[in-house]
Each structure stands twice: as structure tokens, then as C-alpha cells.
């Protein structure tokens, strides 16, 4: 197909967006302007170009609303659990396992991954910081190592796979034109490989610094000055693992995290305010029940999905069914939690939690909508809907551009995987783990067939690069700042501590991606 002015305008938009990401600036404005100019060039009508600014975001919002809804429901459930103190009790059993530095290392990694897999790292950071981190320090685990473990297990492993809630795989799959389940499965395997390599590297490098249990470790840690720079403040993009915080919030969180784990519970709150009901005395029995019921229920859902995938005992849960299953169960758990604590007032508080969840969903992910709208414009499936120009065979702008240089694309899935990984890491420099997923997904869908490589695999690799970088392990202006705050370590030092383990893990996972899939 002959390239038109719309193709070249679209390509210029992609290049500008990547450049803005490298410059660590928000890409919403260039994405909207690129949408307008591309639609105008394609339709030849200024009015249609202007209208496309709205219709592109509307189309993206329609395609992604299921993702917004699942975020809202999970956040609402977390609000209900927080109201009764159950979210604290979910991690308290881990405290007794930390008898030394090595045990503390494994416990912090397991607890952070467990909480982050079901609720994202947003609540995991304050919970681990308040309840487990002081005990880990006392057990002999250095604060820098503890912070790195939290970042790798939470913002890295759990958020990059997002296997339960499936927001990240959904974004990647939509852009790549493949099934969400395929991307989610590959992302889970790649995240485990990356995390295993990174944690092993971190453990072997730091094991000699692990001490024996002593109260002196905690006292020295409490006496340390918080490592954040004066006046440091970042405003991040829209991933659930990356929210903007300043020094005051992080320092206050670190101070409160050092107090007794049973009282320091509301620390470093990047999540939305979900205190819909007035504070009440903790209903001990009910909070214990839901502290067990919720994780067991979610674990059962994951088991059910795996059972359907690998056996014929139950039907396989595919595509949006997984998000629907998680969302439906989470909503019922929310209702049960709210009514068990509020009785007849649960009708009001349940609705309030849902509203708070929706507010958070749009605050956290709203920035992705106009960005996704631009990349959807490059897809033949959406261009007519966005521009209002109906053709028998509409162009696929991004795919046509790739096809025009098909002869120059290496017919080597190994090399292409690393190219997609680097692009994903570049998109993550913007500070948001999810904002770059429409780009990496679109490139995976366009480049994969030309290189005879599964687009779902490439989309998962790009997701690894974007989320591990921007989600909070490799850059200081991400939610890694929150981890540094509660661990009381300098954020730049934490970046350096994580860099080699994470890069080694990403390289290993990418090298194995085309072999495994």
C-alpha cells in the first residue's frame, strides 16, 4: 500500500511521543495533538480532525472501560477491608517467620508479592512498611536490601504480570490485537523469571551483610535521617503502581512505619481516600475472618483459572471472563465486608466505597485514555470509528508503516524481542508503568507477523520493559520513591541497588521468551 500523508503524520506522532517519554514529560498533550493532525490528514476535513480528538478518547474509553471497572471494584474492596482492619491482619502472620536476615529477605519478598498480586503495590508499600519492615530490620536485613526486595517483588514481579486483575495484559492485548489471556500467561512466566533472577542476584550480592536478630538494628534504623532530598516531589503518570508523592508524605510515612506495627497502619497512602464510614472500633472476629476469606477466595479463583487452562475438569476462563470473575467475586466480598461491619448502613457505605473506587480508577488510569486513542487510530479496526471516514478497506497506519520497511526488519524473533524490550523500557522512563503499553502492544502486533514471532509474546516482553522500568524499580521519579520513604534510604541509592539485578532479570526473561513460546 502506498504511504499517504496520514501515515507520515502518524509516524511523526509516534516519534514525538517517544521523545517526550525520554525527556520524562507527560505524553497526553502530544498524543492528543498527534491524533488531531493524523485524523485531519487522513480525512482531509478540519472538522473531522477536531472531532477525532473526542472520538479517539471515547473509543479508547469504551474499549478499556472493563479495565477501569475492575480497578474500581478492587479499590472499593480494599476500602471495605481497611474499614475493619482486615488488610493489616493479612500480613501479620508473616512477622513470626522472620528469625534472621535470610528469613526476613524471603518473608518480605513473599508478603509483598502476595499483597501486590491481588491489590497492586499501592497498599503493599504502606502495609509492609508499617507491619513487617521494622521486624525485618530487627531480624538483621539491611534497610537498602529490604527496600530493593519490596520494589522487585511488588512494583516488579506482581505489577508487571498483573495476572489476577489483568489491567496491564488487557492494555497490551487490546493494542496488539490478541487475546488478553495469551498476554497474561506469557507475562506471568516472564515476570517470574525476571523476579527470580533479580532476587537471586540481590540475595547473593548482599547475603554477607545480613546480620543476626538484634533490637540494635532497628534502633539504628530509626535514628537514620530519611534519605529523600529536600523538596523532592514528583508528579507521575497513571499506573496503579505510580502515584505522585512529595517528601513530606514519604517522610511522615517512614516515621510512622517505624512505630508499632499494630498502630501504624495508615502510612504513605497513594491510594484514594476510601474512608466512607466514620472510624469504628476494630471488629476483631470479623476482621480475622475476612483477612483469611479474601486471600483464600482470590487464590481459589487463580486455581480455578489454572485448572481450566491445564485440565478438562472445568471450562477454561478466557478473555474478559477472567476480569469479570474477579470483579464479580470482589464485589460480593465488598458487600459481605461492609454489611458485616455496618449492618443496615451498609447500603450507604458500600455505594460510597464503589464511588471512591471509580474516582481512583479514573485518577490512576485516565491519562491512558487519550494515549490509547492515538494508538487505536493506527489500527484498521478503529480508524473509521474515530475519524468518521468509512472505506471498504481502511488503512492500518502503523501496520502499513511496518510493512513498508518489512525487508529491513530482521527475521529473528530473538533480536526483535530485545528491540521491543528496549522500547518498553524507554516508554517506562515517563514514570508510569502503564502509559507505554498501547505503544509496545501496537508495535508487537505490527512487527510480530513480519518477523514470524507471536505478537502476544512480544506484547508481554514490551510490558515487562515498561512496567519494570516505570512501575517502580529502575527510575527515581516513580513509585520507587514511596519504597525509599518507608525504608528510610536514599532513592537514588535504591535505584542503583536495583539496577543490575533487574536488568539481568529482564535480559534473561527476554532471551527465554522466544524459546519458551
Tell me about this structure.
The protein has 22 helices and no strands. With 517 residues, the chain is an all-alpha fold.
SS field, number of helical segments: 22
Tell me what portion of residues adopts beta-strand conformation.
Answer: under 5%
Distance between the termini: 31 Å
**Biggest beta-sheet profile:** none
Q: Which ranges are low-confidence, i.e. pLDDT below 50, for 5 or more consecutive residues?
A: 226-282
Q: What structural class do helix, strand and pairing data support?
A: mainly alpha
Helix content bin: over 70%
Mean pLDDT: 81
Q: What's the shape? A: globular
Radius of gyration: 23 Å
**What is the N-to-C succession of helices and strands?**
HHHHHHHHHHHHHHHHHHHHHH
Q: Let me know the number of strands.
A: 0
Topology:
Blueprint: H1 5-22, H2 28-43, H3 46-84, H4 86-89, H5 101-119, H6 121-139, H7 143-161, H8 167-176, H9 180-206, H10 215-223, H11 247-257, H12 284-310, H13 320-342, H14 346-365, H15 368-377, H16 380-387, H17 397-404, H18 413-428, H19 437-450, H20 455-473, H21 480-487, H22 491-516
Helix pairs in contact: 1-2, 1-17, 2-3, 2-15, 3-8, 3-13, 3-14, 3-15, 3-16, 5-6, 5-7, 6-7, 6-10, 6-11, 6-21, 7-9, 7-20, 7-21, 7-22, 8-9, 8-19, 8-20, 9-20, 9-22, 11-21, 12-13, 13-14, 17-19, 18-19, 18-20, 18-22, 19-20, 20-22
